[in-house]
Amino acid sequence: MSQSAKFFYVQVKQLNDADAFYTNCLGMLTESTIISKEKAILVKVDGKTNIFLSEHKHQNQTNKIVLTSDDCLEDYCRLRSRGVVFKNRPAYLGEGLSIEFSDPYGNDFIILEQRNYNED
C-alpha cells in the first residue's frame, strides 16, 4: 500500500510571525529552508503533510488547505485554547465532522474528521 505525501505552498507576509503562529498556535513543527533560492519555512503537519511558507508567490500556491484529523472536536478545543479563531463551530458534513479557520494571512484551513455515516 502506498501513502502519498501532500505538499502545500502558502504565501505569508512575514516569515517570523508566520513561524510563531504555526508553532505556538497550531502546535506544528517548523524549520527554515530554501525554496527556489528564497528563504522559506517548512511546516511539518504530520508524517504525510507539509506546508511551505514563503513571502513570495509560487506557481503551485494555494490558500485553502484540508487537514485530516482523528478527533476534530479535540483539535477544535485545543486550537481554540491556543488563540485560533474559528469561522464556525464544528459541523457534520457528508464527508465527516469539519471545522474552518484562517491563518493571519487569509489562508483558509479545514480540519476534517472523515466519517462514514452510512451503516452497511
Characteristics:
18% helix; alpha/beta; 4-stranded mixed beta sheet; 2,3-Dihydroxybiphenyl 1,2-Dioxygenase, domain 1; 120 residues
Give the SSE layout.
Blueprint: E1 6-11, H1 15-25, E2 29-35, E3 38-44, E4 49-54, E5 64-68, H2 72-81, E6 91-92, E7 96-102, E8 108-114
Parallel strand pairs: 1-4, 5-8
Antiparallel strand pairs: 2-3, 3-4, 6-7, 7-8
Shape descriptor reads globular
CATH superfamily: 2,3-Dihydroxybiphenyl 1,2-Dioxygenase, domain 1
If strands are numbered along the chain, what order do they take across the biggest sheet?
Answer: 1-4-3-2
Share of β-strand residues: 35-45%
CATH class: Alpha Beta
The total of beta strands comes to 8
The CATH architecture is Roll
Average pLDDT across residues? 90
Strand pairing plus helix content: what structural class? alpha/beta
In the CATH hierarchy, the third-tier topology is known as 2,3-Dihydroxybiphenyl 1,2-Dioxygenase, domain 1
Work out the helicity level: 10-25%
Query: How many strands, which pairing sense, and closed or not: the largest β-sheet?
Result: 4 strands, mixed
Count of discrete domains: 1
Q: Give the helices and strands as they follow along the chain.
A: EHEEEEHEEE
Low-confidence segments, given as residue ranges, are none
Number of helices: 2
Q: What is the quaternary state of this protein?
A: single chain
Q: How large is the radius of gyration?
A: 15 Å
Roughly how many Å apart are the termini?
Answer: 25 Å
